[in-house]
Amino acid sequence: IHSPLSSQYMQDGYVVLDGLLSAQECDELRQRMTDIVDQMDVPQHCRTTFSTYHDEQLKTQGNADYFITSGDKIRFFFEKGVFDDKGEFIVPRQRSLNKVGHALHAYEPLYKKVTHSPRIQGIAKKLGLVSPVILQSMFIFKQPGIGGEVTPHQDATFLYTEPLGRVMGVWIALEDATVNNGCLWFIPGTQNSGISRRMVRTPPGTFPLTDFIGREQTYDDEKFIPVPVKKGGVVLIHGEVVHRSAENTSEESRHVYTFHIMESQDTRWSPDNWLQPTEELPFPPLYTK
Predict the structure, then answer these.
(1) 3-state secondary structure at position 238
(2) Per the omega criterion (within 30 degrees of 0), is the bond before 208 cis?
(3) Is there a smaller number of Cβ atoms within 10 Å at the N or the C end of the chain?
(4) Is residue 11 in a domain?
(5) How far apart are the C-alpha atoms of 49 and 90, rounded to whole Å?
(6) For 206-231, what is the mean pLDDT?
């Protein structure tokens, strides 16, 4: 397939497209998330207060278990330091979350609609995807003041396939993403060098539940290029392109809806990945009849 879109994607490892969503669509997704967070039950392990090393270990194990079983659920992942030692919020709950994942695309109608929208399906077709499936989805908050940095990484470290090159992130800015509030930075062209680190499930019955094989390379900071995106714009992210985001030091949040798709034709999804399809939620096809 030789569309200008696919040429740029193959050259740089990412593409920015403006105006995927209208301002109103962005606001509806954000409002729905506000409602979800208002109604959320805070998971018990988050409220656990620990006084002993054993308590701390149980909490760590609870966190890990909650994460590794979240692929077919809607779950809540908090920033550090948002609970006091009694397990109560010390910041407003709307400002407490790092992300919500990983099955918004399956169980939340507004998110499902955007994920399968004609515009997204059209982009996938322009890129020549034959049988794309949706792997996971997240709402990322990047809270003002406390939204932490995301260190340089490649998505295929976490979402590994054989062959590589079958996974793409779709990263939709629900608010302007700027250099000040923690937009993405890329090293263009790094999608062609493979990956040096993989996150894998450890054998059943062992702890921790996941581990890393290999290590992240060190990258030259000078090579990263900031990629600001206007509200409603989308970044398509090749599974092996190196990217990062800085902490959000601004007064504004940087809300994003992001999901990953995989070309399933002639692709093996690694059974070692943390994320696995379940009977309740096999990876759904992107293309709807």
Answers:
(1) strand
(2) yes
(3) C
(4) yes
(5) 14
(6) 95
Q: In what helix (H) or strand (E) does residue 24 lie, and over which residues does it extend?
A: helix 23-39
> For residue 244, what pLDDT band results from cuts at 50, 70 and 90?
very high
What pLDDT does 152 receive? 96
- Write out the residue range of the structural domain in which residue 207 sits: 4-269
The per-residue pLDDT for range 13-29, each reduced to its tens digit, is 999 999 999 999 999 99
Does 246 map to a domain?
yes
| Long-range pairs of 280-283 with CB within 8 A, sequence gap ≥ 24 | 280/72, 281/71, 281/72, 281/103, 281/106, 283/133, 283/134, 283/135
Tell me whether residue 279 is in a domain: no
CA distance 89 to 54: 23
Specify the pLDDT at position 1.
Answer: 58
d(C-alpha 33, C-alpha 101), whole Å? 11
**CATH code of residue 199:** 2.60.120.620
Cα-to-chain-centroid distance, residue 247: 16
The structure tokens listed for 140 are: 């990322």
d(CA 45, CA 256): 26
Residue 49, pLDDT above cutoff 90: no
**Which among 38, 28, 103, 32 has a CA at the least distance from the CA of 73?**
103
Q: What pTM does this model have? A: 0.96
Which of 106, 132, 138, 109 has its CA nearest to residue 120?
132
**Domain assignment of residue 12, yes or no:** yes
Question: pLDDT tens across 112-146, in order?
Answer: 999 999 999 999 999 999 999 999 999 999 999 88
Q: Is 130 helix (H, G, I), strand (E, B) or coil?
A: coil
Lookup: tokens for 23 = 């301002």
Summarize the chain as % helix, strand, coil (round to 5).
25, 25, 45
Domain count, the chain: 1
The answer to whether residues 131 and 265 touch, using CB atoms and an 8 Å cutoff, is yes
Look up residue 133 and give its two tokens. Answer: 């499936």
Q: Encoding tokens for residue 143?
A: 């809270």
Dig out the tokens for 171 from the structure: 């990263």
